[in-house]
Amino acid sequence: MKARTIHFPDEVLEALEVLVEHGIFHNVSEAVRQIVAKGLAEYYELIRVAEEYKQSLPKDDEKGHPTVVTVKVPSSIRLLVEKRVKEGGYKSMSEYIKTAIIAELFRSVRKEKKE
User: What is the DSSP letter of 22?
Assistant: First the structure.
């Protein structure tokens, strides 16, 4: 196993430590390993589902750039997103919104699997 240095926002570290304190994991390293492994499994499931629907998905442009989507949101939502970005954990509003879209896709994939 290789070691890596990862920087987390304070609230993420606190949440990991709470999981350890409650005995869910033996230590923070184990928590990170298992949570990352589960997250990767969900990404792989999302990729599998996307491949099934590949014909209906937008194609990348000729240079291989992802499709750009413009989203209009109420000012109150924009302010909340900007706050999350400033608090850390996200590099930009685009990254925050992309993460939210991926999370919603995970939820819908899980729902489809249960049905």
Answer: T
Q: How many CB atoms lie within 10 A of CB 16?
A: 20
Q: Would you place residue 98 in the very low, low, confident or very high pLDDT band (cuts 50, 70, 90)?
A: confident
Domain boundaries, the chain: 1-57, 59-115
CB 9 within 8 A of CB 69: no
Task: Tell which residue, 44, 32, 42, has the closest CA to residue 8.
Answer: 32
Q: What is this structure's pTM?
A: 0.48
Angle among Cα 43, 48, 54 to the nearest 5 degrees reads 115
In sequence order, the 6+-apart residues with CB closer than 8 A to the CB of 58 are 67
Model pLDDT for residues 40-68, shown as the tens digit of each residue: 777 777 777 766 666 555 565 556 566 77
Assess contact for 92 and 14: CB atoms under 8 A: no
